[in-house]
Amino acid sequence: MMQNRIKQLRKLRGYSINELSMKAGISKSYLSYIERGIQKNPSLHILSKLANSLGTTVEDLLEENQNPEMNVKHLDEEWIELFTEAVKQGITKEDFSLYLDFIKFTRLQ
């Protein structure tokens, strides 16, 4: 559902509700209502602001039948928290890639 997708992307990007509301230019309480499913029909203007702030499209936010196996963006809460913490600690994509290569190498030994 749309509210789950917005919350998932917000956490994946490492944004608090307050940070995303500021980036999108909407109130924190309105964003909270959307994420909790209280506000079920936000306008396209609001969805566009959220999509732009999350680096995605309105279509992506509204997509209901996303197949987790086909969607690399689908992560459970624990993965999102781990990635968020890694980004906060300054780990780059390159660092992470090198770490994965190291793990693969050590497992072959």
Features:
109 residues; mainly alpha; 434 Repressor (Amino-terminal Domain)
What this model shows, in words?
With 109 residues, this protein is mainly alpha-helical. It has two domains: 1-65, lambda repressor-like DNA-binding domains (434 Repressor (Amino-terminal Domain)); 75-109. Helices cover 65% and strands 0% of the residues. The protein has helices at residues 2-12, 17-24, 28-35, 44-54, 58-62, 77-88, 93-108. The longest helix has 16 residues, at 93-108. It is elongated, with a radius of gyration of 16 Å. The model is unreliable at 67-72 (pLDDT under 50).
Rounded to the nearest angstrom, the distance between the terminal CA atoms is 44 Å
What class, by secondary structure content?
A: mainly alpha
CATH topology of the largest domain: 434 Repressor (Amino-terminal Domain)
**Overall geometric form:** elongated
Helix run count: 7
Mind describing the biggest β-sheet?
A: none
- Count the domains: 2
List the secondary-structure elements in sequence, H or E.
HHHHHHH
Beta-strand content bin = under 5%
Total number of β-strand segments? Answer: 0
CATH structural class of the largest domain: Mainly Alpha
CATH superfamily of the largest domain: lambda repressor-like DNA-binding domains
The CATH architecture category of the largest domain equals: Orthogonal Bundle
Low-pLDDT segments, ≥5 res: 67-72
Helix content: 55-70%
Radius of gyration over all CA atoms, rounded:
16 Å
Mean pLDDT metric: 84
